[in-house]
Specification:
Number of helices: 23
Largest sheet: 4 strands, antiparallel
Helix content: 55-70%
Strand content: under 5%
Oligomer: single chain
Length: 755
């Protein structure tokens, strides 16, 4: 049935039609009735197509025959007229009558009567691209003992064999003898030439032309009637094709699922084993009872919970808002059953980290307008067939919405609107040293700098006075770089904390004591301490070199810090933190494999020397058989695995912290590109008084802003935020080695299920 429906779809597509959509009605037609109907329609359509193809082939042959009669007739007529003209002149000179000359044969050798031979000829059509090769082969095969006349057909004609329109040529070949005729006929067959009979007498030619014209006219009427009938059949099929497709697709899915069931030993019932959400158990039992009642079954379906050691699939109930964020997480890997799901954290952290790199509230508003269009028109867009890129944007419309909102927020913090600052939140804490100049026109802003006159900070975000000053770039670089480190350390600590909840839920004390605690100590002893120094430096307003502090914490931990000291006893604290970090490495590496080995040895000794009671023999045998299926313990393999995990975390603590500096780099690149486009494109054009130049500058500015900043930069920041979540955040706690729960549902069926 699926094959027949695909055949109908191909026929409708070839005819240039589209299948009309009609909503599915459950009781329109049964599956058995549909199968019979599809069989009848397929047989009818096959018969119509076969008859149409046969008639079309006959029509093409008659068309070629008509062209042969026309072209060859014109050739014979011209030759006859030329021969008659020459003969008339000769007869006038010799005194013969004109009537005798006309009745004389056209082709006759001037030899003795015993040696006279009549020439034969063959007419037909051949593809134009083969005409030159055809002529050469004829000349070689007959050794030049033939005469070929060709006439091109102006318009392309339908080839009877292939049904395609190609350019062809009418030919007439004159020859002498039966052997030459046999050779020429074989060559015509080899080149795919279509030969047609042609009478030499002009009276028969006219009669044959009339007969061919009448047959073509009748055949055209028959073809039109057949095509109209086929169109009516296809229209009736097209009106119901979508409904039939859905019915067959559902029926196939049902039987595919039934094939997974096993037959009971009594061969009287089917047994199905599967997974279902705990919350869905009452619904499933109710559905089974209703099915038994509707089908008048004498035996009720038995629903029983099985206990198994097999790991269940993971199922997270999502809605249209949270689904896109869950898809982002599961693109890395489906979570193991009941492990912590990072999807709920991703709803906030993913768009926020994106906005840190994309901070501009002007660009954020543009992104918000696009997201609102997708959200407000989601019903209309959801019912349409969108392109690949539009489909992707529509699926992540709520992700884009939050990304835009957070971008507006970080844009206010950076105080950037298409790289232009605004003083929405009060006055600046700086002023021009020369009181006769305002802040905007102060010439010292880019040379000696501004004068601080108030110790009250700007209410929200970056003070707009920094924009355009000589220290703008060093200030924003320092701010964004340190902010990136703080955000990175915070998110990595969140990941390590989630690993504790995983270990606690699965009751794995080893992971708590020998994985969570040393990892937390190692990360915060080094980079947590760096974050503390950053915040302390901001609070104190001091100018120590944090690069020097961190480098010499490793190279010379006992050296006096001098002017780089931030608090009393800093050297002692750094030595303690360094020792904690060094102790944390073997703490992660050795205890866990050794404890696992000790447990395995005790378990094996208990199995080997334990006393068996006779009453427990049978149950113990079953237990031992089940334990043979367990994976064997290899201490070397466990130690190597723990070593890899330890090295990965230690090196990753450094590389992951450095990886968060991409927040600073991309934010800086976005701000500088925005400033370049604003200053070098828009302001450059606005420097002219010509409105046309201004309009061109505005169009170019809008184009590069949309193409580079709103498309390319958005995609770049999205991918970097994705990497930070997958590599730097999720690898601290998320295994992602589970498999997804895929319930049987008609809604999830797609066209791929028809294959």
């Amino acid at each position: 049935m699926s094959r027949k429906i695909r055949y109908f779809q191909d026929q409708i597509t070839k005819s240039g039609r589209t299948a009309a959509y009609r909503p599915l009605r459950d009781k329109d037609i049964g599956v058995d009735e549909l199968e019979a109907k599809l069989t009848d329609l397929e047989a009818e359509l096959l018969e119509i197509n076969a008859n149409t193809d046969k008639l079309q082939r006959t029509h093409s042959e008659l068309t070629e025959f008509q062209l042969v009669l026309h072209k060859a007739g014109a050739f014979f007529s011209s030759v006859r007229n030329a021969a008659n003209t020459v003969q008339q002149r000769a007869d006038i000179e010799n005194g013969s009558s004109i009537g005798e000359a006309i009745d004389r044969p056209l082709l006759q050798e001037q030899t003795e009567p015993s040696k006279q031979a009549r020439l034969g000829f063959i007419t037909g059509v051949i593809p134009k691209i083969k005409a030159a090769s055809f002529e050469r082969i004829l000349f070689r095969a007959t050794r030049g003992n033939m005469f070929l006349k060709q006439a091109s057909i102006e318009d392309a004609v339908v080839d009877p064999a292939t049904g395609e329109k190609i350019e062809k040529t009418v030919f007439v070949i004159f020859f002498s003898g039966e052997r030459a005729k046999t050779k020429i006929s074989k060559i015509c067959d080899a080149f795919g030439a279509n030969c047609y009979p042609f009478p030499e007498e002009s009276s028969r030619q006219g009669h044959m032309k009339t007969e061919v014209d009448n047959r073509l006219l009748d055949l055209q009427h028959t073809l039109d009637a057949g095509i109209n009938h086929r169109d009516n059949v296809l229209n009736s099929i097209g009106n119901n094709l979508d409904q039939w497709t859905v019915m067959v697709r559902r029926e196939k899915a049902v039987y595919h699922t039934l094939n997974m069931l096993s037959i009971d030993v009594t061969r009287k019932c089917l047994v199905a084993e599967g997974w279902c959400p705990v919350s869905a158990k009452p619904k499933i039992q109710d559905a089974l009872q209703r099915a038994a009642f509707v089908s008048n079954s004498q035996v009720n379906t038995i629903f029983q919970v099985l206990h198994t050691k097999e790991s269940p699939p993971s199922y997270f109930e999502t809605n249209k808002f949270t689904n896109a964020f869950q898809e982002i997480v599961e693109a890395y890997g489906v979570g193991r059953y009941q492990e912590a799901n990072p999807g709920c954290f991703t709803i906030i952290t993913f768009p926020f980290l994106f906005a840190v790199m994309f901070g501009d509230w002007g660009h954020g508003i543009c992104l918000l307008l696009g997201a609102l269009y997708l959200v407000l028109n989601e019903k209309k867009l959801g019912s349409k067939k969108l392109g690949d890129i539009m489909e992707m944007a529509y699926g992540g419309r709520y992700v884009i919405l939050l990304m835009a909102i957070f971008s507006i927020y970080t844009g206010f913090i950076y105080n950037e609107f298409f790289s232009v600052p605004f003083g929405f939140f009060g006055g600046s804490a700086y002023r021009c040293p020369d009181s006769q100049y305002s802040i905007e026109s102060c010439p010292m802003a880019t040379t000696s700098g501004m004068e601080k006159w108030s110790y009250e900070p700007y209410a929200f975000g970056v003070d707009p006075i920094w924009h355009g000053s000589r220290s703008e770039l060093p200030f924003t670089n320092s701010l964004k770089m340190k902010m990136s480190i703080l955000l990175g350390i915070a998110q990595m600590n969140l990941g390590i904390l989630l690993s504790y909840f995983n270990a606690r839920y699965f009751r794995s004390a080893l992971d708590v004591w020998y994985q969570f605690i040393p990892q937390l100590l190692f990360l915060n002893a080094l980079f947590g301490y760096l974050s503390f120094l950053i915040v302390l430096k901001w609070c104190q307003g001091s100018k120590p070199d944090l690069y020097h502090v961190m480098i010499y914490m490793f190279l010379s931990p006992t050296e006096d810090l001098g002017e780089n000291q931030l608090f009393m006893g800093q050297t002692f604290v750094q030595i303690v933190l360094l020792l904690v970090a060094l102790v944390a490495v073997p703490w992660m590496l050795f205890p866990k494999p050794l404890i696992l080995r000790k447990r395995h040895v005790q378990k094996m000794q208990g199995r080997a020397y334990g006393m068996l009671r006779e009453s427990d023999t049978e149950s113990t045998d079953l237990e031992i058989d089940g334990e043979h299926d367990e994976e064997e313990f290899e201490f070397g393999e466990v130690l190597v695995h723990q070593m890899i995990h330890t090295i990965e975390f230690v090196l990753g603590a450094v590389s992951n912290t450095a990886s968060y500096l991409r927040l600073w780099a991309l934010s800086l690149a976005h701000a500088q590109l925005s400033a370049v486009f604003y200053d070098r494109v828009l302001m450059f054009a606005w420097g002219y008084t010509n409105p046309i130049i201004r309009l061109i500058g505005l169009i170019v500015f809008a184009s590069v802003t949309f193409g580079v900043l709103l498309l390319m930069e958005t995609l770049s920041a999205f991918l970097h935020a994705l990497r930070l979540h997958w590599v730097e955040f999720q690898n601290k706690f998320y295994l992602g080695d589970g498999y997804k729960f895929q319930p049987f549902s008609f809604r999830t069926l797609s066209e791929e299920d028809d294959l």
